[in-house]
Amino acid sequence: MILTTTPNIEGKKIVRYLGIVTGEVIEGANVLRDIAASITDFIGGRAKAYEEVFIRAKEEALNEMVERDEQLHANAIVGIDLDYEVLGQSGSILLVSASGTAVFVEDVNL
Question: What is the pLDDT of residue 55?
Fold first, then answer.
């Protein structure tokens, strides 16, 4: 499966546009992550606990989008856009949304 943020794929010809595909993940950070992040914020450095949540949510959103792409019998997604939002009163809920266009490409180098 080819995934790209660009509108085309170098060396490939898009022969069918199959529609928009999306993947959405809402991930909550737990109290222990909040405490660890507060300590990191106080002493400085990277908040690894939150980074792990962020990375996992992004990967899950992309995987969900790929599953929907495969249901359309596409073999690539172009124009991928990732959006991130923080929700909840304390800002401890992360929403990751991935969207792109499902396409079928053929190899023009055959």
Answer: 87
Exposed, middle or buried by CB within 10 Å (0-12, 13-18, 19+), for 28? exposed
User: How many domains does the chain divide into?
Assistant: 1
Confidence category of residue 32, pLDDT binned at 50, 70, 90: very low
Range of the structural domain that residue 90 is part of: 2-107
**28: which residues sit within 8 A by CB, 6+ positions away?**
88, 92, 93, 94
Q: Which residues contact 22 (CB under 8 A, 6 or more apart)?
A: 64, 65, 68, 97, 98, 99
**CATH number for the domain harbouring residue 32:** 3.30.110.70
